[in-house]
Amino acid sequence: MGPMPGPIEFHEVCLPDEEAAALEALRPHVERFKLHPLTVEDCTRRNQRCKLESFEEYLFLVWHVYTPRGEGHQELHVCLRTDGILVIAEGRPPEGSSWREYLLRGRGAEGNVKQLGTMLLDRLVDEAEDHLDVLQDDAAELEHAILSRTMNPEEVLRLKRLVKGFNRSMRSAQPICSQLLEMAEKLPQIGEFSLEERLRLRNVVDHMTRLLEATQLLEGQMGTLMDVHWGAMGARANEQMQRLTTIATVFLPVSFWSGLFGMNFETMPFKEAWFFWCGMGALVLTWVVVIFYMLRRGVFAKQRPGRHRRLLPKREISG
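Above: the chain sequence. Below: its structure as tokens.
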């Protein structure tokens, strides 16, 4: 796989969902690229993990393409030969009019296939990082909103499923770059990578490592987000119960005295004026005592953030 004097042929095909129609659409490329039956089966049946396989005539790459705002992924199959690249996709690219424009960022297919393969991996990892940024922003918004409003748990579960699926895809894609370097050393038809190609591939590996670490942290964050949700729900329920209990306690003296004076006596209650004023005085006095007691206990006071003692000393910013 030495450097090619001219541009490498770039072919792409979008397969329909039905397996028979997909086989028919792929048939013209089977002979051209000498596709192995296992490759044809993977492309038509799909549902494959991210992987890199070596066949006699080509390298077979499977990748999950994530878009920033997409909730799912598109399975992408790429066959890399010394004289051509075949892209087999489920549908149209997320951006641009063709997969060549999307994967190569509008550049021509000049150089050798190793350079184009590295460029292709760099593009796919960049798209995965953009998708991870959106997931992290959504998780931050949920964390901010989960303490201020009642939230449907389906929002948390939906994001949790997206993060787990993304983490599963990136975990299977992590060894691809190291496998590519190993294949270059063992297979003579691939050829060794030049220093510039190794540097570019190492940059892709660094991005992939950071991507996987951030994905694992985000998955752990999503694992605790549901616990925070139910804890916030419990805190709001306790606050509402405290309000209801406060209201019931405030009106408890009124209920007690009205029930007492409403009982059947030998004579009509409040028949005498002094009895009426004594009853009203006892009612008001009891109510004032209850209110005073609740004020002393801080029932009506709201905890303010400024009343908490700082856990860490405030640092002075030097000019």
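The chain is about 60% helix and 10% strand.
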